[in-house]
Each structure stands twice: as C-alpha cells, then as structure tokens.
Amino acid sequence: MEWLLNTTKQMKHKWEEVGVNVCDRTVRNRLKEMGFQYRKAKRKPALTPKHKRTRLQWAKERQSWTVDDWMKVVFSDENYY
C-alpha cells in the first residue's frame, strides 16, 4: 500500500516507466472513482525556541539512561484528523 502515499505525478511517472502513457488528470479521476479523496496535509507550527530548549533539556537529562530505563517508558504518538 506504499503507493497510497504517492503524489499524482509520482504515480503517473511509475505508469510511464512500464510503458503506459497517462496524464495527471486521468490518474486523479481513476483514484476518485475508486473512492480515494484528496486530503491536504495539515501544517504544523514550527518549534519555538522555548520548545527546542525544553526538548534539549529533556534529552540531556536522559542521556545516561540504560536500555532498561528506556524499556520502562511508554511512547505514544499524537495524530490529528
């Protein structure tokens, strides 16, 4: 499903590599017919200097942690929909 992350132009190029000549619009139309929808990625604000300092401090405080220390940490990712 790696192809789901490709842009229309990248998909067009892949088709052309195997000898199929299509235009960008055709690729978009076929994807739409298959139920896919265009979604523009949300812009996230850049890190402020304060964020950078806080992250650096956090990392320095844990610089000497062992693998066992890290095994006790639960990481979670934040997703925005």
UniProtKB/TrEMBL annotation:
InterPro entries: RNaseH_sf (IPR036397), Transposase_Tc1-like (IPR002492). It holds the Pfam family HTH_Tnp_Tc3_2. One of its GO terms (biological process) is DNA transposition. GO terms for molecular function: DNA binding. Residues 7-63 form the Transposase Tc1-like domain. This is Transposase Tc1-like domain-containing protein. The lineage of its organism: Eukaryota, Metazoa, Chordata, Craniata, Vertebrata.
